[in-house]
Every structure is written in C-alpha cells, then in structure tokens.
Amino acid sequence: MAAYQAARTLVDAGSDAQVTVLEKMPRPARKLMITGKGRCNFTNVKDWNAFSAHVRSKPNFVKSAFYNLPPQTVVDWFEGFGMRTVVERGDRAFPASYHASDVVDTLVSACHSLGVKIETDAEVASLSIEPTFIVKLADGREWKCRRVIVATGGLSYPATGSTGDGLRWATELGHRIVPTFPALTALVPKGYKIQEDKDLHIDRSTPLGELGGSLCGVQLKNIQLTLIIEGTEADSEFGDVDFTDGGLEGPVGFQLSRKAVKALVNGSRVSVVLDLKPGVDLTALTTRVKELWTEIEKDPRSRGVREKERCRILLGKLMPRELIPGFVAMHPEIITLERRGRTDTKVWVNLVSIAKALKAWQFDIAGYVGYERAVVTAGGVSTDDFIAKTMESRLVPGLFLCGEVLDIDADTGGYNLQLAFSTGALAGISAAKSL
After folding, report:
1. What are phi and psi of 339, to 5 degrees?
2. pLDDT 10s digit of each residue in the chain, 435 long?
C-alpha cells in the first residue's frame, strides 16, 4: 500500500521517480496469505470512535493516518481494482472469495499498474545514510535512494520473513525501541503442555499434557472469559474461545492475551476464569442444575445407572459433551466418595459445586506461544520518534516507518491490517511529496 500510494502521488505530480519494493521473500505478501486462516479479514469498517477503542497502543498517533485512508476507502479501493468484498459480523471485511490470495494479487497488480518494481529474494542486510540512503542487500547488491519506507512488520510468524529486521535498522539509526512481546497469541494453562522447564515461552510444538489432550479441539461460543492478574480482575471479554494445540485461543482468548503476556513477562501471576453460563447468575444456575438432576433421577432410563454416569448425563445437558472429560478432571470436588464401611461406599454428586464450576472455571496460566504463531507483535519502534501526520522520522529526514514495525498493535478483527494500510498509505504519499 505504501508503494502504490507513493507511485500514485508521483504519477499525479508528473514525476518520473521510481518506486521499488525490496521484498525479502520469494513472493510478496507472504504473511497476508495466512491472515484470518487464509480468508484475510483485511479491514474493519467501524468509524474512528469505535475503531480506536480496539487500538492498544497510543491510538491518537494513528488518527491522521486513519482519516487519510479510512476503512470504507480501503474497501472501495479493493473493489475499484475488481476484488469483490463482503462485510461480516463485527464489521469485518473479507474478499468475497474468502481467498487471501485475492488481496495479495490485487495489491501486486495495483502496484504494477503504476510502474512499481517489486524485487523478490531481495533481503536487505543494512540501511545507512552517506548522504543519500544506501540499502545493501545480503547478496551484495546495493541500492541508492532519496527516500526509504520501512514496512517490514514485527517479529510474528518469522517463517514469513518477519524477523525484526526493521527494528534493528531503526535502532542503528538512533531510534528508541519499546520492548516487544507476542500479542494475539495462545495462552497455555498449567498442565496443558508437557513442560520440562518453567520457560514462559512455550513452543506450539510442545506435546500436549493430559489436560491439553482432554480439551484440544473444543470450541465454546457465547462465554465470558475474565483475566486475573495477581488476584485482581484485569479484563473481561464475552464471545467465543477455542482450545487448540497451542492453548487458549479464539477471539476472546486473543483479546485477553496481550495483557496476560505482558503481565507474565513482568513476573506477575496470571489466570483466566471461564464462565460457561454468563447469561444467568449463580443462584438461578444452581436452581436449574438441581431441576435437571431431579428430571434425570425420575427418568425411567436412569434406573440402575450409577451416580457417576448420571453426573455425566447431567453435564451433557449443561455443556458440549467433548468438554466433559476436561471439566471433570479439573473439578474433582463435584463428586464425593463417602465410605460407610469396609465394602460400602456412597457416591455423592455435588450439584452446588457443579454450578459454581460452570460459573468460575479457573485456569492458571503457565506461559504463552511465542512469535512463531503470534498474530501480531506488541511494542516496536517508538512512535515518539515519528511525525503522526507524515510517518516520517524526527531523527532521520527522508526515513518513513509504517505498520507493525512501529509500536502499533490492535485487537483481532481486521484492525491491524487497517492500521498497516493506513500508515503505509500515509508514509507513501508523504515520502513522494517530500521529493
């Protein structure tokens, strides 16, 4: 987007200056191809007031960029180049095909239509000024230019090329870095993975433990998830959550992960509390649980059925059946064994305990999945060193940064790509105008 808008500005001004994209990977926009599980939720069409509430780091810095290229304009831009779009629940915009490749192809075609050169397999090794910008590639080639836009992203999904190169160049040129950490990533409950150490970064490939094995694959809708830091509620979200091979994910899990990871990195105790029945209070739920239990006891099919099996029948009426093994394993208090003699044992099902567990299922968090599968990187090059209305460096004239390489991140739902497009567009226009 930065390249297109720079070229558009130059063409409109009658300039023959050349815009070139130096792309590290064999093909451009590799990370876009995996966005939204390959469906590419490329923006969110909320207005600024609603949108800015989802920006997690200094939203005012990106306000000018947002208004320069707002979400609906992004949608219209893609539509103008022939890519049909759809807007789904939560104001999330997708290509109508639900193929991320359409977004990539549209961006590349748009750039080519204005004469932008896209050099692939062009890994930049260093960036310096003497007095023009000197961009040296890993293969020995060298580029000289009057303006440079760094749009390298952060550290997330390094296999797509995001290995923090932009952070390194910015540091070498004197810019400050806000400490980075993975955001929109899986939180790993204790016992979910087989850990050999207490490292907070738990690789996604780490084998599942007994708890993880019992919960992996379960998807829950319309639940409430509350983040607890050092015993105090820090945040709470309503929506959907997924138990995956990484840990707790899904929209709600991701929303809470930023604060959770930051707290873990700072040495705080972190847990999340899952409310499976947020629509009813504990008293009403307890009454409902007791009513269901009475119905099961009166059912002729329950004759001769042991209490433990009746308990499973009850739980099957209160939650997805695939969730029951993990729920029972983590809540041994719902069943009590009473010894009445050497050979006589009575099993009691604690209905009140079941209701309490449904309302407050606590997971202590052991760690998180790192950059290898984190959706975005929190932190980055300090926005204090850049001019919000142009994206130009205050320290190095002619240098522009945009997107995730800066200390910019937002919630899941199309917000991060919109910020990338908006800041990229503003950087491209500003760089071209300053020639």
Report:
1. -85, 120
2. 999 999 999 999 999 999 999 999 999 999 999 998 899 999 999 999 999 999 999 999 999 999 999 999 999 999 999 999 999 999 999 999 999 999 999 999 999 999 999 999 999 999 999 899 999 999 999 999 999 999 999 999 999 999 999 999 999 999 999 999 999 999 999 999 998 888 999 999 999 999 999 999 999 999 999 999 999 999 999 999 999 999 999 999 999 999 999 999 999 999 999 999 999 999 999 999 999 999 999 999 888 888 899 999 999 999 999 999 999 999 999 998 766 666 666 788 999 999 999 999 999 999 999 999 999 999 999 999 999 999 999 999 999 999 999 999 999 999 999 999 999 999 999 999 999
For residue 106, give every residue at least 6 positions away whose Cβ sits within 8 Å of its Cβ, in sequence order, or none. Answer: 78, 81, 82, 83
Domain layout of the chain by residue ranges? 2-182+378-433, 186-277+361-368, 282-353
Contact 424, 402 (CB under 8 A): yes
CATH architecture under which domain 2-182+378-433 falls: 3-Layer(bba) Sandwich (3.50)
Spatial CA neighbour of 292 closest among 321, 320, 317: 317
CA 376/CA 323 separation, integer angstroms:
29
Type and span of the H or E element at 329: helix 324-330
